[in-house]
Amino acid sequence: MATPPPASTRRLLPLSLGLFQGALLLFFALFATYDEPSAAATQAEDGTRAAEQLPSLFPLFQDIQVMLAVGLGLLLAFLPRYGLSALAHNFLLLNVSTQWALLLQGVRHGHLRLGLHNVLAAEFAAVTVLISVGAVLGRTSPCQLLAVAFCEVPVYLASEWLVVTQLGVRDVGGTITIHVFACYFGLGVSKALFGTERRPAHPKETPTPRSDLLALVGTLTLWVFWPSFVAAPCQPGDAQHRAILNTLLALSAGAVTTVVASSLLESGGKLSPGHLQNGSLAGGVAIGALADVPITPAASLALGSLSSLVCLLGFRFLTPFLARRLALHDQCGIHNLHGLPGILGAVASAVAVLVASEDTNRCQLSHVDGSGVAGDLWGCGGGRQALWQVAGLAVALGGSVISGMLTGAVLRLPCLAPPPEPLCFEDSLNFRIQEQAESPGMGDTAEEVALKEQV
User: CB within 8 A of 423, min separation 6: which ones?
Assistant: First the structure.
């Protein structure tokens, strides 16, 4: 019979969170100030500058907040008895990872001048954590998830600095730096955590119509606000306008292609809810690396359709193959939604650079670096820049897999309270649920009931 985690390990979560928040408070008290336009303005020009920046950036920032807290949380709620945990852990990781990234920004520069650009860059770091934990969703404890956040955020910041700042890779929507990195970091964690053990399907993994409906609402929320996620780091003006239009076209084509491909792949011409939940978003992942590039509308539509097709084929053929041959556990299919479309988008960005004219090649890099300043890194020729795009993909892939496997090894520590197998995908392991307190859950075995009473 599986043994529940001892009480001492269950106290680790509030203890670690309390220490983290206390340390962050001390750091902010000593080293953090508001950026000049955000501080209480005593001069007319400061107030004017703040008034000009806030209306253009804050609506996009709010859209991203809705995406991460609501859309992504609901998308992860496809597990019928783990929806509460998925939403709550997603919300906790978003807050912890954002604050942790802000602290690391301050450590890097010796001080932190807090503004919306800093917070936006920190939330992009948090996105990588929210994506990565999808590979091990339901089979990890809150302490293990926090360990992933504390390990992944500094590695992401280093990878993003190397890929964007040093190599000059164009990736305004985070196709390479966010989606590819987060996907293969999460798969590295999963491989190191679960090893070569081939885990049979858990009886609580099967979605229900209600959980699928919640996840589809999350997909629709992400779909609606995704153009803001891609456009927020862009330079206001033409680049931001192109990013919104290209992203919308890619998402729209991907949604239609998902319906077509799913009806062809499923027996009887019916649609798979899982296909709709993921394939409809694949276009937004792929377009990020070239969203602000002056490509044709047809190119955006084609990339959106192709990325959704690749995503669905991955669910149908590649995921079972990797599980069978490599014992690779990918609970949410992040490889299909983020990894494969991310690689496709990176390759497409290199091709776009090669076919672009010299005039369109000289564009300003519009990725937010935490200070809100965009630099001109596009003075090189198209062929050389295409090589940098591929090099950036290789750096993100290699760094994420290695660091992810090291993090997965850390997650094997018993002090992080891994959940017992019978209580995986179970809200009652972390939450007191009134219905289950009054009567045992339907379908619970005697072993599960005894474990719930102990934990």
Answer: 2, 4, 429, 448, 451, 452, 455
> What mean pLDDT value characterizes the chain?
87
By three-state DSSP, how is residue 98 classified? helix
- Pick the closest to residue 265 from 207, 328, 319, 325 (CA basis): 319
pLDDT beyond 80 at 369: no
What 3-state class would DSSP assign to 114?
Answer: strand
Cβ neighbors of 30 (< 8 A, separation 6 or more) are none
| Residue 197 to residue 314: CA distance in whole angstroms | 22
Rounded Cα distance between 146 and 16, Å, is: 9
pLDDT tens digits, one per residue of 269-313 = 999 999 999 999 999 999 999 998 889 999 999 999 999 999 999
Question: 150: buried, middle or exposed (CB in 10 Å: 19+, 13-18, 0-12)?
Answer: middle
Integer Cα distance of 269 and 252 in angstroms: 21
Mean pLDDT of 163-172: 95
**How many whole angstroms separate alpha carbon 257 and alpha carbon 278?**
12
One-letter amino acid of 248: L
Query: pLDDT band at 183, cuts 50/70/90?
Result: very high
pTM over 0.85: yes
Could you tell me if residue 39 is left (phi over 0), alpha (psi between -120 and 50 degrees) or otherwise beta?
beta
247, 287 contact by CB (below 8 A): yes
DSSP 165-234: IIT----TT-IIIIIIHHHHHHHHHHHHHHTT--PPPPTT-S--HHHHHHHHHHHHHHHHHHHHHHHTTS
pLDDT one-digit tens code per residue, 380-393? 557 888 999 999 99
Longest dimension (CA), the chain: 70
For residues 217 and 74, is the Cβ–Cβ distance under 8 A? yes
Q: Report helix, strand or coil for 313.
A: helix
| 3-class DSSP state of 441 | coil
If one counts every other C-beta atom within 10 angstroms of the C-beta of residue 144, the result is: 23
Distance CA 201, CA 214 (A): 22
186, two tokens: 């999460």
Q: Please determine, for residue 141, whether its predicted confidence score (pLDDT) is greater than 50.
A: yes
In degrees, rounded to 5, the angle at the alpha carbon of residue 79 between the alpha carbons of residues 75 and 84 is 75
Residue 358, token pair as written in the block:
């010299």
Q: How far apart are CA 102 and CA 113, in angstroms?
A: 10
3-state secondary structure (DSSP) of residue 417: coil
